[in-house]
Write a structure and sequence with these properties.
The protein is of the alpha/beta class and about 250 residues long. It has an eleven-stranded mixed beta sheet with strand order 1-2-3-4-5-6-7-8-9-10-11, with no helix packed on it. α2 packs across α3. The longest helix is centred in the C-terminal third of the chain and has 18 residues. The chain is elongated, with a radius of gyration of 21 Å. It starts with 16 loop residues before the first strand and ends with a helix.
């Protein structure tokens, strides 16, 4: 509706669900009086900041496709799902560590170069595809993370994963720069990893690629969207045992 002013909403203090997508908003301050708000969607506006007055019951926010450059000022204590997809965010530093309820964070299509600042202990799903990430840092706090999307980034090494990430089951690394299996071996610290996507990395063009990955990561159940077959697993186990014996 090409709205630029939402001051009228200040009167509707009991609103719980508000969708203001596809307007021309630059200011959300009138929403500060909507203290019963549970759900807010403001996709496709002209916002340059996600900063708002703290709303005590707000659980879901989507700021997708705005012009937001940082993650300052998001402090809603019950926030469970936050989307900042398709903005211009370069760093996650400034993201409040007080987001104790945040389970889902969508940062696809931004300009992040690192994962520094994503210290969110309750986070379960993290979407970081289509950024410019070259290094994985500060991941040790993500103890409850189950799903991590890092497709279409600039990763050449897999340093940064750690054994404290004991719930991570699904990892998508498609279309990065992982060129050798020594990097893949660093994923051995992830005890619950079941599904891995490595397509469109240089290492996926190597001979016996699937077999080499299964030798390193015997607990995988899916590799590149395809289930691991029993005969594949048996062959990988046999080769692994043979190599271990040769090393003795």
């Amino acid at each position: 509706r090409d709205l630029t002013d939402i001051s009228l909403l200040e009167c509707f203090i009991h609103l719980r669900y508000v969708d203001l997508s596809e307007n021309k908003l630059q200011d959300l301050s009138p929403l500060s009086r909507l203290t019963h708000l549970l759900w807010l969607k403001v996709d496709g506006n002209l916002l340059t900041s996600a900063c708002m007055q703290e709303l005590p019951y707000l659980q879901i926010i989507s700021f997708a496709h705005n012009h937001i450059k940082d993650m300052e000022g998001i402090t809603h204590p019950r926030l469970a799902s936050l989307s900042l997809k398709g903005n211009k965010i370069q760093t996650a530093l400034g993201l409040s560590q007080a987001l104790f309820s945040l389970h889902n964070l969508e940062l696809r299509g931004n300009k992040l170069e690192s994962t520094t600042g994503l210290c969110l202990p309750k986070l379960k799903n993290l979407y970081l595809a289509q950024n410019a990430i070259r290094s994985l840092e500060s991941l040790e706090a993500l103890e409850q993370l189950t799903t991590l999307h890092l497709r279409d980034n600039h990763l050449e090494t897999l340093d940064g994963f750690c054994s404290s990430m004991k719930c991570l089951q699904y990892l998508n690394l498609r279309n990065n720069g992982i060129s050798n299996f020594q990097e893949v071996a660093k994923l051995q610290v992830l005890p619950m990893l079941q599904a891995l996507v490595l397509l469109d990395n240089p290492c996926s063009d190597e001979p016996n690629y699937r077999l080499e990955v299964l030798i390193l990561l015997p607990h995988l159940e899916r590799l590149d969207k395809e289930s691991v077959e029993q005969d594949e697993r048996a062959e990988a186990n046999e080769i692994r045992q043979k190599r271990q014996e040769e090393e003795k």
